[in-house]
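[DERIVE STRUCTURE TOKENS]
===
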Amino acid sequence: MSGSPRITFAIPYYRGRDYLSEAIGSVLAQTVSDWQLLVVDDCGPEPADDVVAAFHDPRITYVRNERNLGLAGNWNECVRLTTTPPVTILHGDDRLLPDYAARVLAAAEAQPGVTVLFTDTVNIDGDGAPTRTPADIVKGLLPGARATTSSRATTTSPGCWPGTTSSARPCAYVAISSATHRSMRR
């Protein structure tokens, strides 16, 4: 790693140790190395300090909350603990493609006034196979969203997600397929 991290990956973790290992592995596989990873355990039933420690990487930090903060509270805790302006909330059952950080950092540098960046995703099932959920279909039908569908991805049009355009903070869409999101029925 050269110098300070330029991007933080924050995993708001509750349970799912096996998937967490995959998520961490996808961060380790990034083509850029100047990142940090925070795994923030929301006092879940499956502590994962040993899972994180097994990676033996000083860029990875595990924090276990003293009490359960709930989903939104743990996301906020993830962001609060970061030290870099760009932060990716990476769910513990998701994976990043190897060029994710490089592309997001390039987009952020090309548009320095942007506060929020969105990327394409490829939805996967519990076994990692590409899938498409009913929610993906509905998202493509929302006003302001243009869905481009293939057997592997759902893509929305560049710009802010509908409902965010009135925000004072600008956002941009990064048209890259750079992450996979595990669609799980619980």
DSSP finds five helices and nine strands in the chain. The helical segments are 17-28, 49-53, 70-80, 100-110, 134-141. The CA atoms of residues 31 and 99 lie 6 Å apart. Confidence is low (pLDDT under 50) at residues 146-177.
